[in-house]
Amino acid sequence: MARGVDPAVEKDIPGLLSEDGTWVSRRLFFDPDLYEIEKHRVFGRSWLMVGHDTQIPNPGDFFLSFMGEESVIVVRDNEGKIRVHLNSCPHRGMPVCREDRGHARTFFCVYHGWNFGRDGALVGIPNQRATYPRDFDKSNLGLFAVPRVETYHGLIFANHDAEAISLEDSLGDMKWYLDTSLGRREGGIEVLGVQKWRVGTNWKVPAENMVGDVAHAPATHSSVFQIVPGDPSFDLALKSVLEYGRNVALPGGHGGTFRVYPKDDSDGRLPGEAVMRATPGVGEYFESVQAEAEERLGEVRKHVKIATCMTFPNLCLLGSNFTFRVAHPRGPMKSEIWSWVFVDRDAPQTVKDTLRKFYTLTFGPGGIFEQDDGENWEGVTYGSSGVEASTHPFHYGAGLDAGPHPELPGTVSSVYSEHTQRNMYRRWHDLMLQP
Amino acid sequence: MTESSNQAENAAISLEELHEVEQFLYREARMLDDRLFMEWLGLLADDCTYRVPTRENVQAVRGQDAVTTEDELAGIAYFEDDKLTLMGKAMRLGTGTAWGENPPSRTRRLVSNVEVLRGEAPGELLVYSNLVLHRSRRVDETSQFVGQRRDVLRQTEKGLLLARRVVVLDMNICDSSHMGNFF
Q1: Whole-angstrom distance, CA of residue A421 vs CA of residue A380
Q2: A420, A255 in Cβ contact below 8 A?
Q3: Domain count of chain A?
Q4: Are A332 and A421 in the same domain?
Q5: Using beta carbons and an 8 Å cutoff, which residues of B are at the interface with A?
């Protein structure tokens, strides 16, 4: 992992955050030197979410994904095990897979014709007998495997660090919260597709937006809350976040905003928003499976719903919009967002269709919320990088009242608190300080 | 509906009909470029459906030469709207606080390659056209959205109405933070 790092940049790293995380240098959001370092120190040793196992139900099914900027093949092998290979031929580096998804018996390099099994093993070299010795050892010329691959509720995570703690240990108390969206039913979730788009912003900006930034909603999304006079659905959604929301910071840099409904509110704790549940068949479906969900989640968690949350470094989930996403880094000032829609696997088709449409209406590049988020995230980036502006750190001082909570794991405060962001940047800083 | 099975009806598309369709598409493009969204909504049938699917790189099947498969277009979309949600989106752009479009982008829609066929239902026309949507935003940001529209236009007493639109974009990844425009 040791890479040549400019000593002058190394020397700057300790001072990028104030001790309590209240002041954060703007260099985090545009500096190419720091970006090169975090490729190794953050993305080289964190659990990165690459997709969902329902995208590859059968042996040979695969899709392409990214770990940081690097293309990886996620494939189910003949034994049903999920493998993650670097998409780079061991011979000359040509990507051996050039499709977004599909089914393959082998991965074929179109440059020299080397051929690799689903498990990554090199199975064939054209003219091998004429070219290499009879006892030529192909076993160390397979596709480079990402050493650690583990799943949680079908979310596939991979880690370049062979010595990393397990995924479940890394998630820690985040699991307690993720279950409230992903673990409601025995059959689990499935994903309905993925949207991909680029935003001119550093990857940390979308992440900090989801880790607990409710404060942006009234200003950024004001237009949405105005459009349907007489239909208070979106308005109610915002009010319930402001009223019932709690910002929670968790070890590992994870965190989020979670709505904790009063014990006597039986409607609020159903998934989704009222506007979505009004579609014929949808509210009835959620009612019909609520007993199963409450049985699985237990007394406390049956009142808890994810508004937004972020699993470090860049996996975000929006509970009521049934979507999770990753902001892949694409240079210090660019991100490529991959956004999946998920539903209970055993839900009827009408429910799946409604949830997909509601997601598409609200998020993704055509979504009525997302469009204005993108505008801000780009503005944050170009607005920060000026010679003078860049010398002034950002203030993350809101909500210094965070503390323990009788029922919720983590450090808890009101929704206007920035302690979840301070927590995220302290985690980032810890990793950056380790060569 | 295949083109060959439809050739008899194709022959029956009159020059007046072709002219009316082209004028409809140009008028619509002008309204959208001029941000006359409420007027544009008046060109939509009440049961209008409107989709802009995502695109994928998938392996061409040997012996099958179509670039786009129905399977691909049935996947997740950037827009999956009906008239009510389009109206909501148009109203949102009019609030003054839809920040991604305020200050507004400057757009120019170029519509070409208009091909008119008889639709499946009586009084409906299946219309293919190509679209280049060029957008300038902020100081120097430009985007281009290039694709094919697959429209169903309905002939009514009020003139043509858009009953269905599928926009087949050519890009694999949307290279813009937002698609705050109609296609």
Answers
A1: 15
A2: yes
A3: 2
A4: yes
A5: 52, 54, 56-59, 75-81, 85, 88-89, 91-93, 95-101, 172-180
Q: Is residue A147 part of a domain?
A: yes
Q: Domain containing A292: what range?
A: 171-432
Same-domain pairing of A346 and A218: yes
How many C-beta atoms lie closer than 10 Å to residue B72's C-beta? 15
| B120-138 confidence digits (pLDDT tens) | 999 999 999 999 999 999 8
Phi and psi (nearest 5°) for A50?
Answer: -115, -10
How large is the angle between the packed helices A174-182 and A282-301, nearest 10 degrees? 160
Euclidean distance between the first and final Cα of chain B, in Å?
24
Check whether residue A305 and residue A186 sit in a common domain. yes
Q: Which two tokens stand for residue A175?
A: 């699991």
User: CA nearest A78: which of A115, A110, A106, A109?
Assistant: A106
A239 and B CB contact within 8 Å: no
- CB-nearest partner of B95 from A98, A194, A227: A227
* Tokens encoding A300: 């406390």
Query: CATH number of the domain that A283 lies in?
Result: 3.90.380.10
Low pLDDT (below 50) residues in chain B: 1-4, 8
DSSP per residue over A364-376, as a string?
Answer: STT-TTHHHHHHH
Q: What tens digit of pLDDT does each residue of A353-383 get?
A: 999 999 999 999 999 999 999 999 999 999 9
* Range with lowest mean pLDDT among A176-190, A208-222, A353-367, B48-62: B48-62
Query: Taking CB atoms and an 8 Å cutoff, what residues of chain A touch B178?
Result: 365-366, 370-372, 374-375
Domains of chain B: 4-169 (3.10.450.50)
For chain A, what is the mean pLDDT?
94
